[in-house]
Design a protein that fits this description.
The complex is a heterodimer.
Chain A (H helix, E strand, L loop, with lengths): L7 E3 L2 E5 L2 E4 L9 E6 L5 E10 L2 E6 L12 E8 L1 E4 L7 E3 L15 E4 L10 E2 L4 E3 L3 H6 L2 E2 L6 E3 L5 H11 L1 E2 L7 E9 L1 H13 L6 E7 L10 H16 L2 E7 L1 H14 L13 H9 L4 E2 L5 E9 L8 H9 L2 E4 L2 H5 L12 E2 L2 H4 L9 H25 L6 H18 L9 H12 L15 H4 L5
Parallel strand pairs in A: 9-17, 14-20, 14-21, 16-17, 16-18, 18-20
Antiparallel strand pairs in A: 1-7, 2-3, 3-6, 4-5, 4-7, 5-6, 8-10, 11-19, 12-13, 12-15, 21-22
Helix pairs in contact in A: 10-11, 10-12, 11-12
Chain B lengths: L14 E3 L10 H6 L7 E5 L6 H11 L4 E9 L1 H10 L16 E7 L4 H19 L4 E7 L1 H14 L13 H10 L2 E4 L7 E10 L9 H9 L2 E2 L4 H5 L12 E2 L2 H11 L4 H25 L6 H18 L13 H23 L4 H5 L3 H6 L6 H21 L1
Parallel strand pairs in B: 2-7, 2-8, 3-4, 3-5, 5-7
Antiparallel strand pairs in B: 1-6, 6-7, 8-9
Classes of the chains: A alpha/beta, B alpha/beta.
């Protein structure tokens, strides 16, 4: 950040508390202005104004407040909000959580400087997402279809293979009948070195690295940086998508760590806490990230978001997954029970959902029977699962013939439809045909969700 | 025509009338079981993914109001875009013009400023009142009032007011009441004594689907209709996921007259009978959970068969199916009557000594399952055939 005419410097730090620093006697300081901080040892750090009241400014320090003192610390107000210099050269590069290159390569010569907070898209300027993305994963393509411009999070638990699934999606995602591959912007917030290495290795192994831009804030980096890491990443993605017509897939992991950082700042500011100590404005704050997915009318590019979050104690009603679910267009939920049974990917389809599915499927997009097959699989599997509970109580003998059919369907669904290998890239036709094959154990009179005219056309018994 | 009006003050009217005409929505679960009246208020609480927005959009599409005001309060940008792209293409069944011509959309997506979110609900209801004063029946959908309450909470927090329950300001209940009280069927101000109405349907997004939280509870105290959306129904793809045992409507009595008059004589009896069957089913299900289906008497097994029909073939309605998306009151009534007829005929056959297995495997069940997909124009004819089939097949076993 270059010094400009609006820069003012103060040494009037009155208090350092947690990630916050309070400076007194300041003049003309603006909300969310970026500050440069010179520590007593001459090190430079970055911060942002969180609150201005009279001549007092509250600053959050991104790289942590350790060894800042109140006597010799210098604070320079830059007069600008947080910006990031972006350029096409960022593809294939690795950046730290605050946007500096950490891969040993040269500095980026910016093509544009953009405000990292972006600006909300006017709904009437948006284009409705309707292009089917084939991820090659049956439970997603067949039943929770992802479309370009959607935000679809993965709700996971600690120890579940969400990273493998996200890497597989990043690797396999494509739009049918188009050659262009997705560019991936990967933002890591508070994940371990090991997890970050897993993604980096996977990108390298598959030769995807040259179309990936990585922002890394690892577990041992200051928590407060996590507030800006995803914003840097999304701003870069917006530049790729709307200035250079690229289709960008943004992977944000792990949103739980982001929310923790938000809580830390809120607590340090003595705000009235909301549920479980998270700030009352967490919904708004999360929305300011998630809502940056989408397409803009008249522009070719798109931003598709796939945030990953680890649900504390696998609890979907915890504020983080709960608020996320209210903003995103659906969710993919991973299940510990399926994982224990050795099923990969352990996607529990019942609580999973894609809200934009109906626009992206059907004749000309995927296949005419898609929505019927999906509904039928859902209701049959739900019924099978209910019956499984019933069987545990009353025993198998007490069940009717019809009930046994549903049980064996649920079994087949888990072992054949959900289960696939980490390299298996199933096409949508394969997925739908597999669905029909599994449904054929049920009597045809039970297939109420599929259209009557599709049964003779796709049902294996009629082929 | 242009008027300026402070949005937080309700516009005047001469007097309020009793809401006794239903707001026909073309949605079976709502119209038949839990109707809302013109000038009434309804709340749709439900966790995410239970279909609040689709339900609201269905109402915006098919409700027989003259004007629809849709307030997207702190919701998703793409959903607003969907409405903007889809409504101009849909045809208003009453006028034949694009649906967009009668729709007013107020878009405040979740990443827009909080202060605007606090105001947008008032903007919506004021516009609704303006059209009401011209003599139109207006329906207002607010999706979601929880975001509005949260905006109040955020502003209240910044003002350092003393927080009430869960950090919401102490005036939350009175603000909600003030808002919903602006609904109503009224005689409008003016020399012509026009009768017009504003109906309000508010979605509520309770955190974690927990209905005991303050916004839901305060809303329920005011609203006369409660459509409880249930996550486990949504998981089974039972849509609309309206829980028939938890939901209620206080307008059933007042709109009964309209139904009896314009649809069918004994609407109320058929509806109540279906409701009793559903209630009975939930008791029977508990027994089945304990001892298995075989232990039930034959009569109860027929009841379970009929209630499965009510649930799957009547209550479930596919918003994305071109025919099923709208169901006229007369079709609704005949569908339900047919299912009740099956129940009655099957019971008679049972008493005559027919085996329950042969009754539960009748082929007419499949016809009943597909009756919702019959177009309105052919419906009267086809439903006769199905009813004849029921009589024929049950008497043959």
């Amino acid at each position: 950040m270059k010094a400009n005419i609006k820069t003012r410097e103060y040494t009037t730090v009155s208090e350092v508390a947690g990630p916050l620093m309070i400076v007194e006697g300041v003049e003309g300081v603006a909300y969310s202005e970026i500050v440069d901080i010179e520590t007593p040892s001459g090190q430079m750090r970055r911060g942002q104004v969180l609150e201005v009241k009279g001549d007092v400014a509250v600053i959050q320090v991104f790289e942590g407040t350790r060894d800042l003192n109140t006597s010799t610390t210098k604070v320079r107000f830059t007069g600008e909000t947080a910006r990031i210099g972006v350029s096409l050269d960022m593809l294939g590069r690795v950046f730290g959580g605050t946007g500096n290159p950490i891969d040993g390569g040269p500095e980026i010569i910016p093509d544009m400087e953009l405000d990292i907070n972006g600006s909300p898209m006017n709904p009437s300027a948006r284009d409705f997402p309707a292009e089917f993305i084939q991820t090659g994963i049956s439970t997603i393509d067949g039943m929770n279809t992802l479309v370009r411009g959607q935000k679809l999070p993965i709700f996971s638990g600690s120890g579940l293979p969400h990273n493998e699934l996200a890497a597989q999606i990043a690797r396999q995602a494509k739009v049918l009948a188009e050659e262009t591959e997705f560019s991936v912007v990967f933002a890591a917030m508070g994940i371990t070195h090991e997890e970050a290495n897993y993604f980096m290795r996977d990108f390298e192994r598959t030769g995807a690295l040259e179309r990936v831009t990585v922002f890394l804030n690892l577990a041992d980096d200051p928590a407060i940086e996590r507030i800006i890491t995803p914003r840097m990443a999304l701003t870069t993605a917006e530049y790729f998508a709307f200035e250079h017509d690229m289709h960008v897939l943004v992977i944000l992991t792990d949103m739980t760590n982001y929310a923790e950082a938000l809580r830390e700042i809120s607590a340090a500011r003595d705000e009235v806490p909301g549920r479980r100590g998270y700030p009352g404005y967490m919904y708004t704050d999360l929305a300011s990230l998630y809502e940056r997915a989408g397409r803009i009318g008249g522009k070719k590019g798109s931003i598709t978001q796939m945030p990953i979050l680890v649900m504390p104690q696998d609890d979907i009603t915890h504020p983080i997954p709960d608020l996320t679910g209210y903003i995103t267009e659906g969710q993919i939920v991973l299940s510990r029970e399926l994982h224990r049974k050795g099923i990969y990917p352990p996607v529990d389809v019942l609580p999973s959902l894609s809200r934009l599915m109906s626009g992206g499927i059907g004749d000309e997009r995927t296949r005419e029977d898609h929505s019927g097959v999906s509904d039928q699989l859902y209701s049959a599997y739900a019924e099978g699962r209910d019956l499984r509970d019933l069987m545990a109580v009353v025993g198998e003998e007490a069940l009717t013939e019809r009930d046994r059919n549903f049980l064996s369907f649920a079994e087949g669904f888990e072992n054949k439809f959900i289960t696939q290998t980490k390299d298996e890239d199933r096409s949508i036709t394969e997925t739908l045909d597999l669905g029909w094959e599994l449904m054929s154990v049920l009597p045809e009179t039970e297939l109420k969700r599929v259209r009557a005219e599709h049964i003779p056309k796709y049902h294996p018994a009629h082929k | 025509m242009m008027q300026k009006w402070p949005v937080r003050t309700g516009r005047p009217y001469k007097n309020k009338l009793d809401p006794d005409i239903p707001l026909v929505t073309g949605q079976r679960a709502q119209d038949t079981f839990f109707p809302v009246a013109k000038g009434g208020t309804a709340a749709i609480p439900g966790p995410f993914g239970s279909g609040k927005t689709v339900t609201q959009q269905q109402l915006a599409k098919w409700a027989d109001a003259d004007i629809v005001v849709y307030v997207g309060c702190g919701e998703r940008g793409n959903e607003m875009t969907e409405v903007l792209k889809e409504f101009p293409k849909l045809e208003d069944p009453k006028t034949g013009k694009p649906l967009m011509h009668r729709t007013i959309l107020i878009a405040n997506t979740s990443n827009m400023p909080v202060a605007a979110r606090e105001a947008c609900v008032y903007t919506g209801i004021t516009i609704a009142e303006y059209f009401r004063d011209m003599g139109y029946d207006v329906a207002l959908m607010a999706d979601s009032t929880s975001r509005w309450a949260e905006a109040m909470r955020e502003i209240s927090g910044r003002l350092e007011e003393m927080p009430g329950e869960e950090g919401y300001p102490a005036y939350l209940a009175s603000r909600l009441a003030q808002f919903y009280e602006r609904a109503g069927r009224v005689t409008a101000v003016g020399t012509e004594d026009k009768i017009a109405s504003v109906s309000v349907v508010g979605a509520v997004s309770p955190p974690g689907g927990d209905l005991s939280e303050p916004v839901t509870q305060n809303t329920l105290r005011i609203c006369k209709v409660f459509w409880a959306l249930d996550a486990s129904l949504a998981d089974k793809r039972h849509f609309p996921a309206i829980d028939w045992l938890q939901s209620y409507s206080l307008y059933v009595d007042s709109v009964g007259g309209w139904w009896d008059e314009s649809v069918g004589e004994n609407w109320r009896n058929v509806r109540d009978e279906a409701m009793i069957l559903l209630q009975k089913e939930s008791e029977l299900q508990e027994i089945v959970q304990l001892v298995g289906p075989d232990a039930l008497p034959d009569k109860e097994r027929i009841t379970l068969e009929s209630t499965r029909m009510i649930r799957e073939d009547f209550l479930q309605q596919n918003a994305y199916h071109e025919i099923d998306t709208y169901c006229s009151p007369s079709k609704q009534f005949k569908m339900l009557k047919t299912i009740i007829m099956f129940q009655d005929q099957a019971t008679v056959a049972l008493e005559r000594g027919a085996a329950p297995e042969s009754l539960t495997t009748l082929t007419v069940k499949e016809d009943i399952g597909r009756m919702k997909y019959i177009p309105e124009a052919e419906f009267d004819e086809k439903i006769k055939e199905i009813q004849d089939l029921i009589v024929k097949q049950t008497s043959e076993v």
